[in-house]
Records
---
Amino acid sequence: MITERLKKVILGELNLDDYYFQDSTTANLVPGWDSLKHIAILASIEKEYGIRFKSLEVIRLKNLGQLQELVARKVEEESERKGE
Amino acid sequence: MMSASFYASYLQAQGIKKGDVCAIIIRHNRDFYPLYMGISALGALPSVLAYPNPRLHPDKFRFGLEGMARRSGLDWVLTEAELEPIVRPLLLRQGSTIGGIFTPMEWGEKMEGVKEQFEHPEVTPNEPCLLQHSSGTTGLQKGVVLSHSAVLEHVKRYGDSVGLGEWDKIVNWLPLYHDMGLIAAFYVPLTAGIPVVQIDPFEWVVAPILLLEALSQEKGTMSWLPNFAYNLLADRVHEEDLETIRLDSVRMIINCSEPVRAESHDKFFRRFSSYGIKREALAACYAMAETTFAATQTAAGTPASEISLDREMLSEGIVRLAKKNDEARICVSSGPPISGCDLRIVDDSGKDIPEGRVGEIAIRSVSLFTEYRNSPDKTAEVLKDGWYFSGDYGFLHRGECYVIGRKKDIIIVAGKNIYPEDIEDAVSQIKGVLPGRVVAFGIEDISTGTEQICVVAETREENEEEKKRLRMVIIEAGMQIDITISRVYLVPPRWLIKSSSGKPSRRENKERALALEI
């Protein structure tokens, strides 16, 4: 399930009004989402959530559902880190 | 080399022989290199083609490959098992030149029993060595034939021009279907015995830090990058990922295959100077498949020269240094011609024009291509009396070449050449767009250091919601041929200005469309 917050960041970066995202959606299906845009989208997500992706984590991503899971995990890690 | 011999033996047993064209469509893989050399050892012509991006529709890929096979006379396709079902129908097409499809990366067990024994045919220096293809999807790609002599002369002379020595180590993420990847980062180190670190291009583009990690860990000394990569690295790498990075070993980062932008060099230097990048490491070259690779190269140990020119005079073709209050354009040198290469600047009729004027760059080189395969007309258009007319505009200043534009309408996005015809053709077929009433062009995008693609299409549609939908369909049509359209302008019928040939003029309509935004 892709959250509205994540969807908004992606749509903003792609300059799209709307798009029906599913967990199984892959970047190649989304208008404008090419490899150069991919990096810009990830940077926007990092900024929005205050998180940092590692290279390997990014290379392994297969679809939007995995991106959503990664974001959730990173946010949790970040809040645990801050709580310490 | 032993592995290459095994491949040669096995390929010969499959019927591959001297003069055959072998298209290789294989992703980053260590076995690619011995396979390539195995083909070459048989006197066959390897031709590396881009592995299709997932965005590219399989039918479009097949269509493009079919056009290329027809034009270039591909004899064999060597690819991966995943792609085989998409390519196989081409075998059955009437008049197909393709004699067979192989999946060499699956040959592990079959290769075990193979004896390292193959007949190495006699090859003379002027016989073809390899075939390079430009980008494109509509079969417009031209197959550039390079002889053994052209390639061997080039690797030696180009190596000398960058002061290549045993102390060097090349780090490369460029795909090998591109001349910059194939020649600079494969043939040059191979023939000079220099180690090279190859990075998967698909991985690099999502994690650009990989290049810096490899340069740092392996103490790399050289790398070739298209201009956009300088911006990408400077803008998109996190500070914390750089903690262990040192780039002191790097002696040359060579900007090539897109117009070299001064601001990209500045940005890159500002970002990485504290990690060991030296200003003098920022080099540039002017290269194309038709000259094997480089025609010019800036000297090792000195940064690419920059000159500030009067922008208005430059637009009139006059090279004049900018004065204090002039609007200036900073031009970056691509260096003097390399050994064995001569340059002229000519006018539209092919006559020499004096230094200080902008014209078309014509090149004579010991490494010039032989022909565009099976295209004598296309060859004759650009190759005259031993000179190659590049279609690039530039000028010479103090013996160095500055490239500032193109005569042809090709768009270069992130180092990849894109034919506007491919886009116009795809968009023209969309319901709601008036057929043939479409133009595509590139515009400079300073933030990414490359070009963005814009489309202007005529439509009778007036409803705003419908126009929004149509814009989306146009962007999706671009995706199907692996092209990202960044802006779509929908205009009413008869809006586009026609050129003297009766077709909509790209140049004039570009100016007109951009004026809509002001």
Note: Residues 464-480 of chain B form the longest helix (17 residues).
---
Amino acid sequence: MLEQTLNPASLNRSAALEGVAPIATPFDDLESVVVLYEPRIFRFLLSNLRDRDLALSLTQDTFLRAWTARASFRGDSSISTWLMRIALNLLRDHTRTNRFRFWKQAAATAVDVSDVATHLPQPGSSVEARLIASEQLALIWDTVAALSSRQREIFLLRFVEGLEIPDIATVTTLPVSTVKSHLYRALGTIRTRHSGLATREKE
Amino acid sequence: MSLKPNPNDRLNTLHLSHEQLCDHLLSLAPVAAPDGTSASDTSVAASNQPVPQTGPYLVSAEPNETPALLAGLDAETAVEDHLRACPLCASELNSLQAVLFDFRAAATNYAAAELRGLASHPSPSQTTQRIFLLAAKPDKPAAIRPLTWAIAAMLLVGATIGSMVPLRLHHLAQPPAAAGAQAAPTGESDEALLEEVDQTLSTEVPSAMKPLSDPLSNQQSLASTTDQTTGKTITHE
């Protein structure tokens, strides 16, 4: 009975009984979708929120929303872009409702940049080079956190998720020119701080 | 393409503008995700979707767009030529690119490790089962939802009308009530004032003030005073 209730095929069958024609979507094989896209959605949310538990919770919410709204997936965009759009909307909802909680303490599962720095790819590099790389990563990490939420979203979609600019425009529902403008500004901020650090290192 | 002079450069040589550097950086940025899935991954997507056979810059190429594309390619070539000739711009671009690559790699590796290590992270099959359960369970009966909204709307309308009606009645009733309220105290106060005056007039004059109340008797009293020491009455002629 439980198996029947939880089987997506049976859900489609019940839809057919109600007179609604079941539409085949890529989400019928939800487990494959979760296996393939969960790391990416989690990574995007974790880079944005910097809170593990919250990122995991919103990742699961993303797949729940995708499953419940799967009938509206027409295939105009890729699954990845569609999921990323849902994740971004959830992220914005969360940010909006928590923006004014000044008294909110730092989450116990907040990400520390030193933990992230241990995952830097440095095969065969010297200790000094590792230190410099860690310092640069910390600088970029802090700079990205200080960007406006819109700039941060777009920057991460491009430089962590590797999305093309038209795909970012689809995910964020912004014009391509606006996406580019946000990227220029974000890169301008990063460039300024990075060049400042480079100058200090040379001195 | 027009290169711009760098204000920090003593020789005032031309360098890439910020937009040119960003455009070049964006064209170099990796498209494929580090986990192997492409940004435009359609491996699980509906198979009836057409797969673009051209590169990212030629997807929307139309015959009338060719000059623009060629101009874009010319600009890109000019930027690359400049980067080959200008070590300053090339150094900055390489440095920025390296930092961004490190940031991406670290964020990706860290997220993957966290996802594996999180105790609360369910397996994909558990996640799927949980989603099916949540999706199958109606959060609220569908019939109750419109009823709730209808009741809420009625309450809102009732509250609005209820708050406006007394104000309206009060506003309408206020002039006559105010006029009566003003007239009644005036009449009462007049009568009270008259009574008070009557009482004052009818009040017996205190003994000390009696000489003032009857000036004629006062004259007589002035004519005959009593010597208090002897107790004899002295009459002045």
Note: Chain A has two domains: 1-111, 112-203.
---
Amino acid sequence: MRRVFIWPAAAIGAAALVTFPYWTAEWESSRFATTVLRDILVFAIFALSLDLLVGRGGMPSLGHAAFFGAGAYAAGVATQRLGTDQLPLTLGAAALVAAALALLIGTLVVRSEGIFFLMLTLAFAQIVFAIAFQWTSVTGGSNGLAGIARPFLGGIDLNPPDRMYVLVSATFLAVVLLVRAVAGSPYGRVLVGIRENERRMRALGYDTARIRLSAFVLAGSIAGIAGALSAYSLRFVSAQDVGIGTSIRAFVMVLVGGAGTLAGPVIGAAVVLYVERILSSAVPVAETVLGLLFVAFVLLARQGIVGIGGAAWARMRR
Amino acid sequence: MGSDAPLIEVHELSRSFGGIRALDSVSFAVQSGERRAVIGPNGAGKTTLFNVLTGEIAPSGGSVRVAGDDITRLRPWQRARRGIARMYQRNELFAPLAARENVALAVSARAGPYRFVGTPSPAESAFADELLTRVGLAGREGVPARALSHGERRQLELAVALAQNPRVLLLDEPTAGMSPAETARITELIAGLDRTLTIVIVEHDMDVVFRLADRVSVLHEGRVIADGTAADVRGDTRVNEVYLGKVVVR
């Protein structure tokens, strides 16, 4: 019986999410809340893409910001230099540039595992950071790219904050559905097989290096879309978007929320941005709290918030 | 190559680890449909031989041919696609996945990994359940591999290898760590497999070896010291000296 209500409830929830700025218009802090929610959703997309690697494929990347940043720069450069403000073109360019970079880096890292994978992805992301920081003519160097114009979708100007929010939240929902479908597909099960026992997967006839590369490229292109949405939202791209700080934030989101789940990265993004944007203005040591929280989850609750919630739910039903 | 060519042809295969020659110019041939046992004391190079046959370890010299094709340079997954399956000595399973899912991953390898839409096919699950019943795991299909007993995991290990629908089945000590009753069960199970399937089996239990094998190769310090029918090998004095004699003493 209960299953019958899941889809209508999800549809209502999705509609409420996308129309958030409109039904909260009367609230005093509606604009602020919309902005925070928008940024949470941008990072939720980014964290969901990272979780394809960390949670599903067992590839702990500490360089995922390279693709986020590549997408952000690509979207910014596309609108500033290529003279196009059409969303499909700039967002498509962002996804393509990020995918191409992921193909390049992925080819070099997918044969390594565990801590070596972690260090290699970090090293390559640092190279991308150095390029972003020094290639001033394209990236603006340390100044970054400021004043990025928000795109058009056909004749619809996405510049108003409410519309920008709708773009982000609709893209977020699309990514959730995509990741859900991939995770539940035969391909998703193959990724889990590689995570659990790559040696056996090879012995079963799976070209595991290539499969891992395909996941790396898929995750990279979704991260690129998140980066482009960040560039549109903030109207600014800086080398920080490619930096290790951005990679670590996404990693923290995945682990705190719960790796290998659909809700985990989203909850993680909400927790991290809540601490950074809201708690930090009330509590002076909020960032330290975030660090301690992360350590606590790594040591005590590897399954993240979703894991804790699931265990509590199971106990209640018993 | 004609159809008379052996299915597996190992030619002067060598592999050293540091100063130790794990395989020292090993040559032998296995005919299609044959059941070959490889025996020898611990450290004789049996598992290294399997690792070289499946491509997990590169040989320092020599070649491996399957059905006339040189596969020495192929990667493990490419060899699996050519019909080589292996039952590992130490179970290599997908611990958190149900027994059914373990087998289904082997079944679905043929359909390819890049299926992004839809759910894993019910036909694959049904075939997996069939195989699990064959190896004696009926009723345990939904149990995660890590929750199975040691004997059950060995059975699952065999089901996964069989699910690949191989031409060549490499069995690395299939009865290791099993109770006598489980050993008898799995031995009869292997004995009852399709006679067109070529089997190479590494085993310490001589009852199992003589029950299953048409021919026996004896490895000692990385060399083949005897190669013949089960009866020949039993009568070989040198084999008795290095290996069988010790078993009797034990």
Note: Chain A is about 75% helix and 5% strand.
